[in-house]
Fold these 2 entries.
Entry 1:
Amino acid sequence: MRLKVLGSNSRGNGYILENDKEALIIEAGIHLLDAKKALNFNIAKVSTAIVSHEHNDHAGYIDKYLDTGITTLCSAHVVKAKSLKSSFVRIVEANKGYKAGSFRIIPFNLKHDVPCLGYIVEHDDMGRLLFITDTMMCEYTFPNLNHILLECNYADDILTRNIEAGQMDAGMRSRLMHTHMELNTCKGILKANNLNNVMNIVLIHLSDGNSDEKRFIDEITALTGKQVYAANKGLELEISKTPF
Ligand SMILES: [Zn+2]
Ligand SMILES: [Zn+2]
């Protein structure tokens, strides 16, 4: 299985999991054409798309994905917010299991300023992948993880510096605190989970102004001893099941 990052920030989010036979698209915040290009225009191999929440950087193009006939899993909140009518919508509920092609999918609730779902995605080719974005925290732990895509949006000290320098509005702190994941929260989640079988940690949705990619990677690497990446557009990773 291959992970392709189409975009991972407040301007647009999109990720593809793809093997020779099938693919799963995570988020519909990237123009459909970019997803098509990444799939070599083989849209027919897409088993499903999964969408976390209604904000445009995650769901801005959801109607286009649906119009192309891509089955898309999302919550009833997204359907309402985006007035979706397509028969390709599949409404999902937290903590229930879904199947699409050979992918097994379990959504769970996160804490953002609108209802937001994280996802566990399983496939025999890659094992168990955790996807968490746009949340102040996560109240669950997850057994048997093999790959982690985890928001690491900002560091509080960088945010403080930006506010003191007048580059960021002071109200930003309480907004971010309740909507996006801070570096130490990200570390806390990684510490709370058993990482024995984790092969890759991909830090996603880094803030433009309040993050430091190299530092985040260094600190998470030091904490976990794992292979850590920042989800820059164009990143491609081979994510196979057998760890070592
Ligand atoms: Zn976002
Ligand atoms: Zn959001």
Note: The chain has one domain: 2-238.
Entry 2:
Amino acid sequence: MNTITPRLFRPGAGALPPALTGREVEKGVLSRCLADLVVGAAPPHDVVLLGPRGNGKTALLTWFRDACRNASVDAVSLTPHRIPSHEALVDVLAPRKGVAKWLPRKIGVAALGTAEWNLEGATAKDLTQALINRCRRRPLALLVDEAHTLAPDIGGLLLNASQQTRADAPFLLVLAGTPGLPDRLDAMDASFWSRLGEGLLGIGRLDEAAAREALVKPLAAHGADIDRSALDAVVEYSQCYPYFIQLWGDALWQHRVTTGGTTITVAAVDAVGPSAVSRVADYYENRHRELSAEGLLTAAAAVAPLFQTRREATATHRQLNTALAANGIEDDAERVAALAGLCRVGYVWCPPGQVPPVCWRAGIPSLTGYILENAAA
Ligand SMILES: Nc1ncnc2c1ncn2[C@@H]1O[C@H](COP(=O)(O)OP(=O)(O)OP(=O)(O)O)[C@@H](O)[C@H]1O
Ligand SMILES: [Mg+2]
């Protein structure tokens, strides 16, 4: 009988990796917020996780959700498609229990003496009251993924209710999204940003030590290892990009399951190279399609040369603008829109918390090379 091959690495969107390495600063900020909730206090700020696709925002949210639940703090995970209306938001955050859920909202809640709101359009006050009631019974962390797609009116309601709830009860809002999230939040609540402090976190590629650990640790836990040259090669190919690390790890693990042996060598890296490279190419092609569908291909190709010199290359805002203008995007408003679009899809981004001068980076450096070669295709 065939035994099922265990999948060790997790190259799927949102999958918790076998070792969530790096992210010490981010885990530290989230853990301090959790410590506040545990003792019934409100953290001093909300948390916003910003980063290009595939860097581990969802994985970090999942890690935090589990940490909350282990500490007996309620954690509700949401994506914007689950909250298409004000009423849906209230229903998710303050669900009615027992007989109340069979009664019309207004009668039901009034009869049971809990929060009261207007079925025709929940307001921040209604939601705040319902949230305060809930959080006083048990602290709550609300984790909203893909928050850059929040409808402005629903996001605005949520942000207002969050700030007011935090003033009175142990509540934490964590938002995660692409680098387009700040634009979306600005459209909801202008004052939100100034109060985030250390709660604004950029989720970019891992540092080299964390990238190595992401491969070595899971292998070691399963009695396997990888020699120095093979590890160097995989870290180089993956560019410390979490999604590519999982993808290479998966290919190497499957190879090891088939061939046996405990040490992964360069020969194994060479053997799985073609399949790993073709999965990376599929990923580039999806990003190419996304840029094309968003009408951003010309802008993406225009700024790509700025990021070709080395993997950590950065560009100033002025350099990006000059590159866009030189490639036919001459109108100011069009350039602003193009840069906002590139940011929204995480092709380029400006990591928060930089010491001036503020610099832009490529979300995935090697993607810029791919776009340069294939933009016209
Ligand atoms: N710290 C980490 N260490 C190792 N692997 C990681 C880490 N963070 C994420 N990964 C892996 O990277 C991949 C991408 O992670 P995830 O889906 O969480 O990214 P994301 O930022 O949410 O992307 P998207 O914006 O597309 O939703 C997953 O395979 C995940 O297991
Ligand atoms: Mg995600």
Note: The mean pLDDT is 89.
